[in-house]
């Protein structure tokens, strides 16, 4: 580094100018700030050293200001942050990098995105197991209050749910150990978590009922629990209640929301607000000439602007309703709507109006789904894991078998996961045992197609009868044609099965086209509503939709049948869903709580098996066992085990030798195995691993399915095959 000569007679300003030139040249030559200061300190007096330090700071500052500003797409930015979190990058490092490369507004978005991801991301199976073991260790060596504190320290909602289950198990054990009522109310007072408070209060109620002592629970202004009977959500509470966790009243929150919209140049007027079990709904009226598109995607901006005032941690859903636009603000003290609190099963059932439970609306109103309505008939549903589909399905089945005798309602169930519907085996309402694989499901659907044809033949024998409703209105109650509800869980696996997918698709198309009039209703559910797997002809024949929370916006569009409706992404999971017919309702599904209160669940099943059936059912004469046996005889009578090309037995022809036949075999080399293990240890899901290692996604159809099965089998072998779902 060439420095100016240190001559006391030289003009000081001239020396500074020379030093500035020397420092600039040194920076261009690649010297660090420390190296430059060291050279200056050795050759020049302290005053010039101080000046050199000032010059370096100015140069660094100008360099930062002169860097090009890049406006990142927010969806891209969110995806990059999510992948970094999954890969194990800590928050400080992510924020440091983003501070260097993002604008101030984008940096603020990054902060909120990190909080959202930590709250809502799906933890890996390893992480879930680790947290569960930690909780078990805590309760084994410490009082249950220590478990409460550990759960309160967890941000992620899915890990919290694991904690809630552990709490329920331990409260049940404490209940069996004859603890006093006051013990559980004291536990409720020691927790700041509203779910845990609720569990403790309900346990106290169970103790009071068991001991025959009166109990009265109420919550004081500071949140402590006093004795007063807890009340679950009802219409009066929903209409008049104020969310206790919010500082603002709903009216004040509405006015604040309107003021914030004005800051975004959106003219609006506050109309009203309602309280529901899952969210609070604020309705506003947009000003004249203000397009709905201006507020459609404003959710993330509201989290940024009103996150603290309204307790927003996730973006609110924005929807159009008659007379305005509504903003659904998630509740911090979210409630469950329990199945047992809505049904007593007293009195006779209406055999002409078969329905299933829908859920609770925002104003506390219970909404049923009428299967007899032309606007329902068949239902397509979907959503990711822990969205609430299984609870919705179990509530529907439990209600049907307890409300209606077998002469009025019959069930056809398919459950390839083998864990959801198995507990309903043995009910007299079933037309066949619960189908647990693609073959038995194909047989079940072919049986329903044949049953449908026999019913229409019955209609032909009578003048002016075209539907089951007309038939029953003429002949019931002396002769009742039962409605058949076919509920299929996880259709993705069925429609991806190379051997039986064509049979299943053909049967579904026939049933969806005309089975509704014959009283056969199809309820089709899946976690992965892939547009390349579920045929558009199948999707288009569902007049009703139930969309639970989805991972991707395109999944929401597929389920709701609207390329622009991405609202299911903003749902809160655990039973929060959209019910779409001629309009769209947001409901909280009823929670059966079969694991929480197994005695009640088993009692209803026993009552369903033993209920009085005063009606005579119309019978087609078609027996499922004989029908399935005839299919088997037909398939086995062909040479070399080949099936005939009939509706009941044909298999899907491959589109290409590679994709369709599945004749290729996947061999994992050492590099692929190492990559799979590394990604799995970092918390990647199976579909993410397949994408990263083999560059395949669900859009690649059967090729993706083949590689996914190989990866899943490899990971199961690593773990000894202990887990069904990686």
List keywords for this structure.
DNA-binding, 47% helix, nucleotide-binding, DNA translocase FtsK, seven-stranded mixed sheet, alpha/beta, four-stranded antiparallel sheet, 726 residues, ATP-binding
Percent strand equals 5-15%
Question: What is the β-strand count?
Answer: 17
Give me the Rg, rounded: 32 Å
Unreliable residue stretches = 219-247, 639-663, 721-726
Number of helices: 27
The strand line-up of the biggest sheet is: 11-12-13-10-14-15-16
Helix content: 40-55%
Question: Which structural category do the helix and sheet elements fall into?
Answer: alpha/beta
Mean pLDDT: 82
Distance between the termini: 60 Å
Gross morphology is: elongated
Q: Quick one: biggest sheet?
A: 7 strands, mixed
Notes on the structure:
This protein has a 7-stranded mixed beta sheet, with helices on both faces. Strands 3-4-6-5 form a 4-stranded antiparallel beta sheet. A two-stranded antiparallel ribbon has the order 1-2. The protein contains 27 helices and 17 strands. The protein is elongated, with a radius of gyration of 32 Å. The longest helix has 23 residues, at 438-460. It is of the alpha/beta class and 726 residues long.
Brief overview, please?
The protein is an alpha/beta fold and 726 residues long. Helix content is 47%, strand content 12%. Keywords: ATP-binding, DNA-binding, Nucleotide-binding.
């Amino acid at each position: 580094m060439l420095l100016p000569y240190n001559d006391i007679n030289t003009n000081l300003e001239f020396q500074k100018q020379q030093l500035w030139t020397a420092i600039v040249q040194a920076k261009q030559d690649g010297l660090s700030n420390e190296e430059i200061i060291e050279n200056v300190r050795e050759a020049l007096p302290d005053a010039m050293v101080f000046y050199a330090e000032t010059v370096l700071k100015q140069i660094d500052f100008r360099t930062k200001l002169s860097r090009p500003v890049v406006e990142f797409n927010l969806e891209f930015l969110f995806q990059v942050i999510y992948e970094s979190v999954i890969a194990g990058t800590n928050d400080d490092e992510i924020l440091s990098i983003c501070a260097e490369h993002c604008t101030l507004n984008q940096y603020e978005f990054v902060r909120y995105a990190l909080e959202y991801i930590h709250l809502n991301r799906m933890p890996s199976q390893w992480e879930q197991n680790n947290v569960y073991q930690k909780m078990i260790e805590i309760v084994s060596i410490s009082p249950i209050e220590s478990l409460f504190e550990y759960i309160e320290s967890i941000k992620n909602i899915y890990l919290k749910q694991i904690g809630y289950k552990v709490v329920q198990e331990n409260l049940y054990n404490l209940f069996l150990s004859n603890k006093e009522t006051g013990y559980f109310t004291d536990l409720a007072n020691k927790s700041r978590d509203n779910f845990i408070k609720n569990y403790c209060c309900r346990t106290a109620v169970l103790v009071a009922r068991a001991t025959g002592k009166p109990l009265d629970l109420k919550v004081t202004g500071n949140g402590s629990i006093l004795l007063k009977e807890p009340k679950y959500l009802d219409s009066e509470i929903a209409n008049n209640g104020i969310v206790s966790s919010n500082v603002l009243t709903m009216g004040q929150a509405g006015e604040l929301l309107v003021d914030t919209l004005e800051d975004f140049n959106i003219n609006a007027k506050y109309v009203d607000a309602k309280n529901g079990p899952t969210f609070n709904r604020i309705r506003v009226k947009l000003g004249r000439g203000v397009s709905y598109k201006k507020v459609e995607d404003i959710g993330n901006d509201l989290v940024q602007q009103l996150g603290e005032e309204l307790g927003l941690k996730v973006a609110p859903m924005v929807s159009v309703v008659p007379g305005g636009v509504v903003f659904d603000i998630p509740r911090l003290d979210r409630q469950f709507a329990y199945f047992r609190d809505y049904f007593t099963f007293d009195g006779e059932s209406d055999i002409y109006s078969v329905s299933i439970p829908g859920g609770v609306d925002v104003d506390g109103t219970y909404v049923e789904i009428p299967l007899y309505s032309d606007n329902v008939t068949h239902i397509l549903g979907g959503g990711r894991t822990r969205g609430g589909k299984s609870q919705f399905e179990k509530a529907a089945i439990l209600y049907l078998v307890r409300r209606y005798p077998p002469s009025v309602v019959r069930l056809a169930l398919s459950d390839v996961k083998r864990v959801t519907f198995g507990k309903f085996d043995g009910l007299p309402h079933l037309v066949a045992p619960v189908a647990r694989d693609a073959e038995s499901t194909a047989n079940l659907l072919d049986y329903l197609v044949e049953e449908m044809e026999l019913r229409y033949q019955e209609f032909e024998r009578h003048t002016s009868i075209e539907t089951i409703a007309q038939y029953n209105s003429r002949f019931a109650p002396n002769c009742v044609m039962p409605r058949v509800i076919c509920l299929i869980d996880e259709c993705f696996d069925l429609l991806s099965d190379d051997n039986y997918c064509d049979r299943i698709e053909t049967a579904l198309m026939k049933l969806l086209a005309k089975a509704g009039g014959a009283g056969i209703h199809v309820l089709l559910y899946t976690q992965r509503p892939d547009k390349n797997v579920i045929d558009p002809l199948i999707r288009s024949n569902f007049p009703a939709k139930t969309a639970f929370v989805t991972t991707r916006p395109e999944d929401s569009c597929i389920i709701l049948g609207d390329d622009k409706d991405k609202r299911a992404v903003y749902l809160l999971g655990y039973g929060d869903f959209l019910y779409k017919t001629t309009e769209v309702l947001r409901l909280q599904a009823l929670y059966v709580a079969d694991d929480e209160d197994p005695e009640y669940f088993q009692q209803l099943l026993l009552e369903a098996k033993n209920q009085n059936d005063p009606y005579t059912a119309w019978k087609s004469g078609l027996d499922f066992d004989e029908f399935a046996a005839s299919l088997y005889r037909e398939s086995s009578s062909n040479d070399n085990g080949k099936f005939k090309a009939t509706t009941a037995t044909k298999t899907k022809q491959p589109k290409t030798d590679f994709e369709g036949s599945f004749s290729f075999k996947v061999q994992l080399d050492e590099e692929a195995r190492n990559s799979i293990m590394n990604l799995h240890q970092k918390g990647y899901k199976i579909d993410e691993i397949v994408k990263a290692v083999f560059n395949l996604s669900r859009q690649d159809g059967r090729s993706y399915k083949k590689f996914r099965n190989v990866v899943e089998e490899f990971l199961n072998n690593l773990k000894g095959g202990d887990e069904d779902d990686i």
